## 1
Amino acid sequence: MPSLSDAFKSVPVQCKEPDISSMDEVPELYLWPQENQQALEENIGVNIPVIDLQHGVTSRASAGSVIELLRAAYEEFGVFQIVNHGVSQQLLERVENQGRRLFSLPLDQKIKARRSPDGVTGYGMARICTFFDRLMWSEGFTSIGSPLEHAEKLWPDDYQDFCETIDEYDHAMKDLASKLMSLILESLGLRQRDYSWGGDNCAALQMNHYPSCPRPAQTMGMAEHTDSTFLTVLYQGSVQGLQIKRSDGMWTVVPAIPNAFVVNAGDLLQVLSNGRYKSVVHRAVNSIKPRLSFAYLWGPPLTAVIEPAPQLVDSKHPLLYRALNWNEYLVVRAKHFDRALEFFRNVQ
Ligand SMILES: C=C1C[C@]23C[C@H]1CC[C@H]2[C@@]12CCC[C@@](C)(C(=O)O1)[C@H]2[C@@H]3C(=O)O
Ligand SMILES: O=C(O)CCC(=O)C(=O)O
Ligand SMILES: [Fe+2]
């Protein structure tokens, strides 16, 4: 059985880890073209629904059931936010504190837990850094299941709090993600029991740190991308920074709502829904304030067959993708990035 880490062995990447936290000036390599930076500030969060998982109400005028709200959100944006999701504020604060603790370590300490060139977990720049000619003003830490292996290197005598907190968060996210997937399947008119896949779902936790930036309008925190998941549950704390690209090409800010999660539609959901729900293109921008975010990237068991649901294929909706599994998708994606889905297009 391949593991999530194996998918990346074929395309090793070597990213640099400069000490941006201690820079008061932004080096040339971090300056991105200006047009990258214009989000519709006056449009902050307009229409991106906030769904109350317990009561089904929303920020939108037209309140409806959770399922209807979800469907409308994914058809229009590929993203929504959730509140009353059952994850305690206390756990979120503990996770934020551990994230802060990790990223405030000196660089030469963090480097000890550096992601290996052919690996997935550990400290470093987001893997997509190799597809852009500028550097991103951010650093990250990725774990799959227990972060013990890396935490021992970061804090040889004091890794327990970190591991316990991340384990707890991982479990909470696992439950939440599968609940969300049930709702998504229901919103597509699909039966839950057809999608048990016989095996454990795979997931990764990506912690991102965007240090305070002296020239936030000229830099990029995390360059535009989609997630290669079914869905991603993102906690962005209280500092705004996430933006989504709408179907008309306009960037829109996803407001930071205390204790809410952002739920992104990923590439595999686009396949499963036969293009009904498109994965959302998103990015994170910098600010004067330091920012942390925690993305739980959730997908199927690695070798489970994922294909467009037969119920969503008909004369008006031709079959768009051929069957694939997450492992082969990640391999193609590691090499071809935003063109990966094209390789799985169904050719008649
Ligand atoms: C299971 C996953 C999903 C990964 C790769 C692997 C672990 C880390 C994930 C991210 C997290 C940051 C954005 C992204 C684009 C990246 O560079 O690393 C993600 C990528 C993907 O969604 O493809
Ligand atoms: O920091 C953010 O808001 C976005 C992070 C993200 O897109 C990711 O980790 O995949
Ligand atoms: Fe993302």
## 2
Amino acid sequence: MSEAQELEQLRQAIDSIDRQIQELINQRACCARQVAEVKEKYAALGETVVFYRPEREAQVLRNVMARNTGPLPNESMARLFREIMSQCLALEEPLNVAFLGPEGTFTQQAAVKHFGHAVCCHSQVSIADVFREVESGAANFGVVPVENSTEGVVTHTLDSFFDSSLQVCGEVTLRIHHHLMRKDPEQPIERIYSHAQSLGQCRRWLDQHYPGIERIALSSNAEAARRASLEPGSAAIAGEVAADLYQLVVCNANIEDRPDNTTRFLIVGRQATLSSGEDKTSIMVSSRNQPGALYQVLEPFHQAGISLTRIETRPARTGTWNYAFFIDFEGHCDDESIRPVLAQLQLVAADYKWLGSYPKAVL
Ligand SMILES: O=C(O)C(=O)C[C@]1(C(=O)O)C=C[C@@H](O)C=C1
């Protein structure tokens, strides 16, 4: 057989498989439509029907990864199913998602990674605006950064929970790669723009390569890229999406000081999420101002053998030198093992707020 004949044979096989895949995807979409009808049928009169089910989506993606035999890697396969589910959900209900903008931010990438491409993403200028959009019902969900593995907590996000009724209904992590980008690489660099967090994540690289050059913190990396696209003597540190969006040349790729640089984002919404089997819970507690108070807050976790994934301190709103602790731990508030712990916490804490139970990030 010639090369052309061999290719022709294999391509016919691919065409036939594609037809079957397409047929099956449409069958799946029909099922999703029926699921929507069932949800509508059983919703109480006047009750908002909840189409988006994060716990089920997490289970579907985990199942895909668990049964995958390759040659496609688990994560690539799960990403394909992420998109299929995103399109299926759009048939049930098109979702509006508010994210910390502008266009081209890592938060936008996180939103797409979590919900897939079939949602409508709406850029917001601040974290407070993301919360407001969701609280008012203008958006179904919001996506905000909460912590970075190099630079630590995003305080604005944590503080937004003090006065908000929104719940955490999901988390998503994104490996962050920073690039130095320019409009015209021939021009000498006079200043470098980026978000303060990103300047911090590339501090050592900048000290080594551009020690005397002014670093200017802006509201976002995408804004930094936009400015660099307008000013010939400027460079920006941002991600690939921003470079594409503002047609900048990447002069130095992956300049983050730590190769495992990762940001965690929260999905906030107005609905509680059921248990997916592998969940996390976020709470906010403040301890009484007395000896052993923090110990009392942590003791129930220790007794129940529950692993804390994060603890963060923020000044509380209740008075000077009072503190609130933001605690994330493994488990769902409905789990048998978690319920008594939360009950105990409410007894010992001066203030207690449950922020949400949600599936652990799958992708
Ligand atoms: O199982 C459901 O509740 C569905 O609506 C179906 C489906 C899916 O496509 O698998 C779609 C949207 C939901 O967020 C979860 C899953």
